[in-house]
Amino acid sequence: MDIVDVTEKKLSVDTITELVSDDTCGAVSLFIGTTRNNFDNKEVLRLEYEAYEPMAKKKMLEVCASIRQQWQVHKIAMIHRIGVVPVKEASIIIAISSAHRKESLDAVQYAINTVKAVVPVWKKEIYADDSSSWKQNKECAWSEDCPATASGPAGSSQGTADD
């Protein structure tokens, strides 16, 4: 079972973990990307995310399919938050269950790296000095060819909380 979503709601580790938990599995591995309070010697107040939701969900399902081709996993959940994400709160949670830990650990690392590279989600950092910056994600598959990488979601690059 693959569960993907893009939401403005605050993410719950417990709720998302429960989505993938199963009596047949001995492991649930998680990645939680959170907003940190600093970047490049600037104080970050919050992140603001935008997404092309239909494509984001489609790409996350493709990542799930790729995981299933490589590892024996049971359930996968990928939930990305959009809108305002305050410091210390999660912008993405990926949870993967498997019979044994190696599969889910390897799969969750692959999942976050791949999501950052292919899912159309854009991140704007808001700083304490009243400035802001759309952040380019170095893993973004289209970052070199993007026509307006610094201008915002219309043509900008993608990012997630752990950049």
UniProtKB/TrEMBL annotation:
Keywords: Cytoplasm, Molybdenum cofactor biosynthesis, Transferase. Residues 154-163 have a biased composition (Polar residues). It is an enzyme of class 2 (transferase). It is found in: Cytoplasm. Its EC number is 2.8.1.12. The keyword Transferase applies. Residues 144-163 are annotated as: Disordered. Substrate binds at H100, R101, K116, K123, K124, E125. Pfam families: MoaE. Pathway: Cofactor biosynthesis; molybdopterin biosynthesis. It comes from the Eukaryota. It catalyses: 2 [molybdopterin-synthase sulfur-carrier protein]-C-terminal-Gly-aminoethanethioate + cyclic pyranopterin phosphate + H2O = molybdopterin + 2 [molybdopterin-synthase sulfur-carrier protein]-C-terminal Gly-Gly + 2 H(+). The keyword Transferase applies. PANTHER family: MOLYBDOPTERIN SYNTHASE RELATED (PTHR23404). Belongs to the MoaE family. MOCS2B subfamily. Heterotetramer; composed of 2 small (MOCS2A) and 2 large (MOCS2B) subunits. HAMAP family: MOC2B. Catalytic subunit of the molybdopterin synthase complex, a complex that catalyzes the conversion of precursor Z into molybdopterin. Acts by mediating the incorporation of 2 sulfur atoms from thiocarboxylated MOCS2A into precursor Z to generate a dithiolene group. This is Molybdopterin synthase catalytic subunit. It comes from Aplysia californica. The lineage of its organism: Eukaryota, Metazoa, Spiralia, Lophotrochozoa, Mollusca.
